[in-house]
Structures are given as C-alpha cells and as structure tokens.
Amino acid sequence: MTEAEQDTQTSSPTGERSLGVERHSIDWVPLAERHGKVSSLGAIWFVGSLNLTGFATGVVTLSMGATLLWTVVATVLGSLFGTFFMAFHSAQGPQLGLPQLVQSRPQFGYVGAAVTVWVFALVNYVGYNTSDALLSGDAMNTLFSVPNGLGYGLSAAIATVLALYGYRWIHAVNRWLTWPFVVIMALVSGAALFGGGLPAGVWTPGPFDLTTFMLVFVFVAGFQLGWAPYVSDYSRYLRPDIPVRSTFWWTYLPSAFSGIWVFVLGAVVSAAAPAGATPVAALKIAADRLVPGLGAVAIAALLVGLLSIMAINQYGGSLTMISIVDSFHPVRPTRAIRAVTIAVMLVAVGSIANVVGVEQFNWFYANVVVILTYLFIPWTAINLVDYFFVRRGQYVVREIFNARGIYGRWGWRGNLAYLIGLAAMTPFMVITGLYVGPVAAALGGVDCSLLVGLPVAGGLYLIFARGLDLAAERRMAQEEGLLTPHRKEVRP
Q1: Most buried by CB count within 10 Å: which residue of 106, 110, 440, 486?
Q2: How many CB atoms lie within 10 A of CB 491?
Q3: pTM of the model
Q4: Which residues cross the membrane (predicted)?
C-alpha cells in the first residue's frame, strides 16, 4: 500500500475528520483535511447501483423490445462504455479537492456554468430522485402497507439525515452494505435463474435488431454516465498524490460490475414477471419463488441501498443549488445552507413524484435517463478534454471562485462547443414516444447520438482552447500551490 492510500485517523484542526455533520460544501478541501483510502471508492460505487433504481433499470431495458439475450449483450456493452467516462471524472476529485460541477467554471465561465451545466445537473438530481421516490414509496407500500406518499416521506427523511451528515457517513454506509448486498444479490440471482417462471426458449437469441439494441445501449450507458456530474464529489477528500489510474480503476471496475449484475438481474426477473408488474412487484415474485418470504427481504435490502442513493442525490442536488446561487451572489458554504437546499430537494421531488405516480414509472424513468444522457454527453466530453488534454490538471483554485477571474464570467469556448455538440446530436436522437431525429429515422430508429456528441463537443473544445494562455495559467497555479506543492501535469 502506498503512502497516499494510508488512512490517517488523526483529527484536523477544523474537526472535519469527526463523524459529525459535514462542514464543507462547494468549497475547496484543504490538504490538511484530506484522508481515506482510494479503495473506499470501491464500496461506494459497487453499492451505488445495487438498489431498486438499478434493478428497475434492467426491468425497463427488457421493455424496449429486444430479446433477453440481446438485451443482456447491449447492457454489458453499454455499462462498460458509460462507466469509462464516469470513472475518469472520479479521478479529478483527489487532484482538485473540488465538487465536480464547480470544476466546470474554467470551461464554461463563472456564470456560464450556472445557467447551462448546473441547471441541467439540478434537473438530473431531481429526475433521478423522483424515480427513487416512486420506487421507495412502492417498496414501503409493499412491505408495510403504508400509502406511497407516506412511504416516500419516511424514506426521504432517512436519506435527508444521511445527506446532511455528508461525505464520511455516505462512504461508511456504503462500506457496511457491501457484503450483505453481495449475499442478497446472489440469492435473488439464484431465484431469477433457477426458481422457475422463465418462459421456454427465453434465451433463444432471435433476430438481431440494431434499433432496439441501441435503445438499450444508450439507456444503460446513460445511467452510468448519470453519475458523472457528481462522481468526484465522493473522491475529493482523498489525498492528491493518489495516482489517476488508481482512482479510475477503483471506480470503474466496481461500478461497471455491479451495474451489469443488477441490470441483467432486472431484465431476467422482468422476463418471468406478469405483464404490467412494477419493478418492486416483479422482484418480490421472483424471490418468493425460491424461498417464501425472500421477496420481502430482497425488497428491504434494495430499499436500503436506494436510501443511500437518495442521500447521494440530495447531497449532490444541494451542492448544485448552492453553486448556482453562489454564481450570482456569493454565499458562505455553511451547514445551514446545506440543510435548506436539501429540504428544497425533498419537497420538490415529493411533489413531482406525486404527480407522476408509480404506474407511469417505466415511461417516466426511461425518458428521464435518455434526455439527461443527451444533455450531459457534450459536457462530459468538454470537461474531460479540458482536464486531461488542455490544462492537464493545472487549475488556479482561487480563480475558480473569483467571479471576474482568469476563467471569465462566460466561457465562450465551453458553451459554444456544448451547443454545437448538442445540435449535432439532435438529428440522431430517439426519445421514445416523443421525438425521433431525421437521421435516426432514416436509419430505422437507430440512436447513435452518443457516438456523435462525444467527438464533436470534445474535438471542437480542443480546437477552441488553442487560444488560451496556458503557460500563464500554469505559473499562477504553481505560485498558488494549493493543489499540491510537488504537482506534475495530470495525464490520462
């Protein structure tokens, strides 16, 4: 184990190392407060998908029209693809010590990031947490026969406490859940595969249909990419001398593996479930086929995992709201403002979930994931290109928080590359029941927008960035010395 991976247990002068309510929000984490092992990321991203929403993702994939076997193949490839980009974002956390979206200011500008990237990020948190709310309410209703709205309220209350305590508790809870979840997932997997209920010939490949295959691929890749706007929030307390490759692999492998496991499990369970069954009902039926009563245990376990993700979404939504406000009027990143913004998230999500209803879950969730994927593909390309190929990890932290600093109020390079990238993707998009782009229609409904948006947005930003005075920025970063005094340029 390297020195960078040692977990020092001494308290910092600020007491940040205690298990109390987290003090930091959108501000930079000082080097004296960096702590933890890079391996801690393994638990948080392994458990990250092992919940009712991850399971429901697999249920929705099978409803897209591909056979079970082709759904599984598309799921595996989509998860490996989407997690690749997400894990590189995770690697930014230890190097910068900043929340993911704050680091968008050098590309999009102090105000520009707030009215483009951060607004979309807030929609991301609300959309995913609304899906979580629908499932948590359905699960509480199934387990305790309480109304769905009350079930969400109880679940959200627990998640809110976890979100308020923040980084250390979120990591701790996911670490505690890891091995119990492995056992539960193994039992449910056995029930799904060997408990009966699967139709005869369900594993017959059938004809390959590129349209439905790409729908599943984009949906699953989008789910994994959905972590990108906040993945480094959970690595930003790690020490900056941890190598990029260590952070990458401790994020990529656990997230990709657990994602594939739970997505495929959801698809298999859905194949054996009655038509119209909700994801929660399908899970209960499958598990009870193996051992009576196992269904309730499985729902309870994945509900606990869901509470952790609800907390992560509330935590991330809180940081995003604070970032947006701070871009127009400087705010002190206090515990109080975190509590207020978390409460706003809770009320907003509950209201939307009440309007949507669990009966519309599959339609709502499928479109939320796909639309958010489209919105974040150009951002992820621009952010990663800037970090790894343009500025190579060299940023001036104080200027990121300076409204009139070197990064400007409106970063025309990032915003223009983003808009052109999104426009280039639009003809290739497929939003089921809402929109099919002309090129996608000409291709028979095949969605290949991801393969367009990534190179267009990233390539254009790389060209636009040629006019930056990078030498001057590097001198300022070295003089500031906040990131690490012996820092070298970061390379992927």
Answers
A1: 106
A2: 9
A3: 0.86
A4: 43-62, 68-88, 108-128, 148-167, 179-198, 210-228, 249-273, 293-315, 336-357, 363-389, 416-436, 442-465
Question: What phi and psi values does residue 436 have, to the nearest 5 degrees?
Answer: -130, 120
Arithmetic mean of pLDDT, 333-352: 81
Give alpha helix (H) positions in 273-411.
279-290, 294-328, 335-356, 361-385, 397-400
CA-nearest of 487, 51, 55, 47 to 268 is 55
| CA atoms 410, 414, 420, 421: torsion sign | negative
Single-letter residue type at 489: E
For 288-304, what is the mean pLDDT?
A: 90
Query: What is the bridge-based pairing of β-strands 430-431 and 435-436?
Result: antiparallel
With beta carbons less than 8 A apart as the criterion, state whether 155 and 138 touch. no
H/E stretch holding 431 reads: strand 430-431
| Separation of CA 420 from chain center | 24
Asked whether the predicted pLDDT for residue 244 surpasses 70, the reply is yes
Going by C-beta distance under 8 Å and a sequence separation of 6 or more, which residues neighbour residue 22?
16, 164, 165, 166, 167, 168, 335, 338
3-state class of 430 per DSSP? Answer: strand
Between 355 and 265, the more confident residue is 265
Helix (H) or strand (E) holding 171: helix 167-194
Q: Which two tokens stand for residue 31?
A: 């080097």
* Cross-strand pairs, 431: 435
Q: Are 35 and 166 in contact (CB under 8 A)?
A: no
3-class SS at 170? helix
* CA separation for the pair 492, 488 (Å, rounded): 13
Domains of the chain: 35-365 (1.10.4160.10)
Q: CA-to-CA distance for 486 and 483, rounded, in angstroms?
A: 9
Condensed to tens digits (0 to 9), the pLDDT of residues 128-148 reads 888 888 999 999 999 999 998
- Contact indicator for 210, 446 with CB cutoff of 8 Å: yes
Question: For residues 353 and 151, what is the distance between their CA atoms, to the nearest angstrom?
Answer: 12
Question: By the 8 A CB rule, do 259 and 54 touch?
Answer: yes
pLDDT in tens, 170-206: 878 888 888 888 998 999 899 888 887 888 888 999 8
The token pair that represents 336 in the structure block: 């109080």
> What are the tokens at 489?
């340029």
